[in-house]
Amino acid sequence: MSISYREVKADILRQITQGDLAPGSAMPNEVDLAVSYGCARATVNRAMRELADDGIIERRRKAGTRVRQNPVRHVRMNIPIVGQEIKELGAKYRYALVQCKAEPAPNWLRARMALKDEDRALHLTCMHYADGAPYQHEDRWINLSALPEAEQHDFSEVGPNEWLVSTVPFTDAQISFHAVAASGIVADYLDCKEGDALFQTERTTWLEGQTITFVQLTYRRGHRVTMQY
Amino acid sequence: MSISYREVKADILRQITQGDLAPGSAMPNEVDLAVSYGCARATVNRAMRELADDGIIERRRKAGTRVRQNPVRHVRMNIPIVGQEIKELGAKYRYALVQCKAEPAPNWLRARMALKDEDRALHLTCMHYADGAPYQHEDRWINLSALPEAEQHDFSEVGPNEWLVSTVPFTDAQISFHAVAASGIVADYLDCKEGDALFQTERTTWLEGQTITFVQLTYRRGHRVTMQY
């Protein structure tokens, strides 16, 4: 039986890892590789395509295919729903709705969400607890022009994130990670001191060019997001 | 000409997005899909495989293929080298080596890097500037048992990250994002106040099971990591 594309890919990767194919050097051409592996050219092509997708080699129209100088390393990070995140920690999850009201969007939010003058927003504040201790403070705005049904929805039992995921499951989003000093209000909810350094993520979500929601998630002191790559 | 797997994938994705195929519902089988698209079964299979890889559908041995309830969303984030990151901001990059000395690893680091009693570590402190202003403080330890050549290397012109990437290009790593209160020393380097909330990443890098390096990167006030997904 002939060699598989996975075996070809693993063998090329081994040569790169061990330095037989140095960073920046040209890759042998696919026809020659197919001959040396005794396989079809399509098999080599698939292996090369995956190595390019993985950021290990780069294909340039004129310069040919080369081993990358600095391999592109992608982190694949799952975007969890906070309840799932807490359950995966082995803790009991509790949700509380603090506030939910439709109000005119403040100017900073209008700019941020690209809202029009007539757009109204639903402002929600929620708390998420792990084993009874504050875990995450959620401050969310939903664009009521995009999702008018949000205004009638009851968020007292299930948080807006879960509702949004089931209502508008496919969206584009931008997420940012940063540090903030706890405001007095957030410090009170998260049981820490005003000014404490807290990890915060902001997420803006669009559906077909229209902004659906903007959320600030502020985590309890010491929270970390950890990934392997 | 026959329909491509990309067109099949796009059409299925459209049906899921528009709700014709609801979250949790069973996908039609591949043979039926191939008949309805007038294409080879292999074409449908490739489209389905990519949808599964993207976390849109899930394939279970007994339950068959279904539309996922909560699509898995992966962030693909590039791990940049700080000099490239600063140049991409359109700023001038400057590097400074603050300290470089071989010393016994402190206990917390021994545990963290899984060092043996006899292992020595090279401790480096570096600063990275954007247009002359402090951008990132780097506090790095390199395991000299794994990389003895680091002790003789001159890090005064080029930072240890760039050197490591070219010396040990393929590694496993764990990265974490969190917030820290600036220590007096770091505040001094980053030109902020002690206790200010700063964004920090920690990275541990292994090669074939051996820890190569552990680094804490602390960013200037207001730094954000932003991703699309």
From TrEMBL, chains A, B:
Ordered alphabetically, the record's keywords are: DNA-binding, Transcription, Transcription regulation
Whether Transcription regulation counts among this entry's keywords is yes
* Protein name, entry field: Transcriptional regulator, GntR family
InterPro entries assigned to the protein according to its UniProt record, in alphabetical order = Bact_HTH_transcr_reg, Chorismate_lyase_/UTRA_dom_sf, Tscrpt_reg_HTH_GntR, UTRA, WH-like_DNA-bd_sf, WH_DNA-bd_sf
| Alphabetical list of PANTHER family matching this protein | MANNOSYL-D-GLYCERATE TRANSPORT/METABOLISM SYSTEM REPRESSOR MNGR-RELATED, TRANSCRIPTIONAL REGULATOR PHNF-RELATED
Q: Does the keyword Cytoplasm apply?
A: no
**Which species is this UniProt entry from?**
Sulfitobacter delicatus
Please give one Gene Ontology molecular function term for this protein. Answer: DNA binding
